[in-house]
Specification:
By secondary structure, the protein is α+β, with helices and mostly antiparallel strands. It contains seven helices and ten strands. The strands form three sheets. It has a six-stranded antiparallel sheet with strand order 4-5-6-9-8-7. The chain has a two-stranded antiparallel sheet with strand order 1-2. Strands 3-10 form a two-stranded parallel ribbon. A hairpin with a 3-residue loop joins β1 and β2. The radius of gyration is 23 Å and the shape is elongated. 21% of the residues are buried.
C-alpha cells in the first residue's frame, strides 16, 4: 500500500497520518498480530516527525484499533471477545455459539489439597485431596484467559479424563454430573508475575478476574473456578431484564 502525506494540504499532518493508518490496518498483511513498521521508519517514509506520527498512533490506540506494547512495538488490536452473563453456557459452548475457534495453549491436571476458600465452598476438609485443572486458552493468535478449576470429590474424577473435551459435556456423559447453576463474582486486578507470563502481558497490566461457583441439579457445589482474562481482548457484559 502506497503511503504519502500531502504537505500542501490544509488538513493537519497528524490527521492525514491517522487517516493513512486507518487504511493501513485494514491490509490483511497486518492482521493476525503482525507488527506495524516501527515509528522511525514510518515517520521517515511519510516525511513527518515522530511526534506527529505518535499523535496519530495514540488516537488509534485510544480507539482500541491499535495496541502498543513497550519493547515489542505496535500492532492491530484483536477483536474483543464478548461474554454475556445471561443464558449461561460453558466457555467452550459459548465461544462455539459465537463462531469463535478456541485454542488450548496449556492443560494441566493434578491432585491437590484445597485451600480454606475452596474447602469451605465444597464443605470438605482441607486434608481431602481434589482434582485441579489449569487451562490457558485463547484465539488462534494469542492466549487471552487462564482458568483454574477445582472439582468436588463427589463427582468421582480420576484425573485421567479427556479434559480437552467441553468440560460440562464430559462431566455429564462420564460422571452423570450436570452443571445447572452458576454464581459469579467479577473484579479487576493487576496481573502478578505468574499470570502476566501466562497471558503474555506486562506485570501490573489490568486483568478481568472472575470467580465462578458451579452447582449441580441438586444445588450441590461441583466446581470452583477462577479465571484471569486479558483486559485488552475480553469484554464481559451483563444483560438484565426487569420483571
Amino acid at each position: 500500500m502506497k503511503l504519502s502525506i500531502d504537505h500542501k494540504s490544509p488538513i493537519p499532518l497528524h490527521i492525514q497520518a491517522e487517516q493513512l493508518l486507518r487504511e493501513l490496518i485494514k491490509d490483511p498483511a497486518y492482521q493476525g498480530g503482525k507488527l506495524l513498521p516501527n515509528e522511525v521508519e514510518l515517520a521517515k517514509k511519510l516525511a513527518i516527525s515522530r511526534t506527529t506520527l505518535r499523535q496519530a498512533i495514540n488516537k488509534l490506540v485510544y480507539d482500541e484499533l491499535l495496541v502498543r506494547k513497550k519493547g515489542f512495538g505496535t500492532k492491530v488490536a484483536s477483536s474483543k471477545i464478548s461474554s454475556k452473563a445471561m443464558n449461561w453456557l460453558s466457555f467452550s459452548q459459548e465461544m462455539k455459539a459465537r463462531g469463535i475457534t478456541i485454542k488450548n495453549y496449556e492443560l494441566h491436571v493434578s491432585w491437590v489439597l484445597p485451600d480454606e476458600h475452596v474447602a469451605s465452598f465444597f464443605e470438605i476438609s482441607t486434608e481431602k485431596k481434589i482434582v485441579k485443572m489449569e487451562r490457558l486458552r485463547g484465539s488462534a493468535d494469542e492466549p487471552f484467559v487462564y482458568f483454574i478449576s477445582y472439582f468436588h470429590p463427589r463427582i468421582g474424577l480420576t484425573g485421567e479424563e479427556d479434559f480437552k473435551r467441553p468440560l460440562y459435556e464430559m462431566l455429564e456423559e462420564e460422571h452423570l454430573t450436570i452443571a445447572n447453576l452458576s454464581k459469579e463474582e467479577i473484579s479487576a486486578l493487576k496481573a502478578d508475575k505468574f499470570v502476566a507470563s501466562k497471558l503474555e502481558i506486562e506485570t501490573g497490566s489490568p486483568v478481568l478476574f472472575r470467580k465462578r461457583f458451579v452447582y449441580d441439579q441438586g444445588d450441590r457445589p461441583m466446581e470452583y473456578n477462577i479465571g484471569f482474562y486479558k483486559a485488552e481482548s475480553f469484554v464481559y457484559s451483563v444483560e438484565s431484564r426487569r420483571v
